[in-house]
Amino acid sequence: MRVGQACLQHLIVGYVSVDLATFLNPNTMEQKVWAIDLDLTYSDNLAMTQMLLMMTGGMLNFHTGCLEVPMPYREKGCEHQTAAKPPVVPRYAVIGSHLFHSNLSMLYHNVFLMVCKAHGIGFNMKRKQGTIFAVYDGSERCRMGMIAVSEDLQGALVTFARNLSVIHQEISPSNMQGETNFKYLIKEVEDVLQMTVQNKMRAVEDKPASPIY
């Protein structure tokens, strides 16, 4: 909101993307977030976020920073259920809008999706979680976007990294590995996963013990 108000004061309206840099303060181990740049354009990340909202039917709660997704009732026929609003559950998503692999150009899109289906990579519309692909139909066909949605952050990160690993293995024979950023992204996700595990352990250690009566 503060960035938006500052833009409005300078007569900047419309789509604005904010570049953020985050790091841990080595002295306090506190996470810091800096806004370092503005892009006055409709960004790829915004387009991927809109796709996420469309597929999940959810909305972003900007006050809590959560993705809230309505879940349909499992049983039908109850009048009070159909009249009431469906329950809302949180979902976590990892978005990659610039995935590159030169070997992707050797596969037609339907073959690529069949390979993913064979490995259980897909999106469950009822549970509102799984994997969503944005297949860019360019002349080279070597770039794509991917969204991993899960009930928790750790699950979304694991799904994202596993998908990259499976796709890389399926389209990269030993004699033709190709050019890709998949391996780098897998390493980055693994580092974030390790950090989330450490944060959970630290939260448990910092939690005060329950009194014994």
UniProtKB/TrEMBL annotation:
Question: What InterPro entries does its record include?
Answer: ATP-grasp_IQCH (IPR056855), IQCH (IPR038752)
Cite the IQCH-like ATP-grasp domain residue spans from the record: 1-62
* Domain of life of the organism encoding this protein: Eukaryota
- A Pfam family: ATP-grasp_IQCH
Instruction: Locate the transmembrane regions by residue number.
Output: none
Stated name of the protein: IQCH-like ATP-grasp domain-containing protein
Q: What's the source species for this entry?
A: Pagothenia borchgrevinki (Bald rockcod)
